[in-house]
Specification:
The chain has 174 residues and is mostly helical. It has 10 helices and no strands. The chain starts with a helix and ends with a helix.
Length: 174
């Protein structure tokens, strides 16, 4: 009967998922690699803007909140989908059923992502402001330009766990 096969498949799926998690969770090397996202940005943005963003990054929570409200991919990334089994991640996000181990084991990576993406977001704001002299930073036009440029940079330099998104730099053969 099909029940035995389903139970066996569920067991194997869970075993594989837990093995993958064990290889990544609580690894400081994974945490420190998050910082390389800034280095990759330098391929498409003048480092002057990143340096300026780093100096002025005094309110990371405010910046992260603004970024996640304005940029859909930043919000998606903040949900922490780490598993190719997207249904499980979505269920956990909606119902708040993520295990404590997962929250602790992967939460640090999410904080590092938010922090580095916040720096990138601030750098983009600095760049847009410098390239559009006289633009009102509170205007819808400014916000739109920031979102467009941020999306461009993310698409080309960052890793986002989504079946619809893969950074161009990660697709390169060299």
């Amino acid at each position: 009967n099909g029940t035995a096969q389903k139970v066996e498949r569920d067991f194997l799926d869970k075993l594989i998922a837990n093995t993958k998690k064990a290889q990544i969770a609580f690894k400081l090397s994974v945490f420190f690699k998050q910082g390389t996202s800034i280095v990759r940005v330098m391929q498409v943005m003048n480092p002057v803007h990143l340096r300026s963003a780093l100096k002025s990054y005094f309110q990371p929570r405010k910046t992260i909140r603004e970024m996640q409200e304005n940029v859909p991919i930043a919000f998606w990334k903040s949900l922490g989908f780490r598993d190719p089994a997207m249904g499980t991640g979505i269920k956990n996000a909606l119902l708040g059923t993520e295990s404590v181990t997962d929250k602790l084991g992967f939460g640090l990576y999410g904080l590092a992502d938010d922090f580095t993406w916040g720096i990138i977001y601030n750098a983009v704001k600095t760049e847009v402001k410098s390239k559009n002299k006289g633009i009102d930073v509170n205007s819808e036009e400014f916000k739109q330009k920031v979102v467009e440029r941020f999306n461009y940079i993310i698409d080309r330099t960052q890793v986002v766990d989504s079946p619809f998104h893969s950074a161009q730099i990660m697709k390169s053969n060299n």
